[in-house]
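Posting for a labmate who doesn't have an account.
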Amino acid sequence: MNEKNRTVVQKMEIVLAGMAQAQIILLFTENTVY
């Protein structure tokens, strides 16, 4: 149970990190456009 939960948490962290990076990239692209 614990091992499965750990893998799920790790996947969630990776997804959240990817979303954060995407938002940062979008902010930079918006700034360059303006």
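Reply:
Got it, the structure tokens are right above this. Residues 19 and 25 are 10 Å apart (CA to CA).
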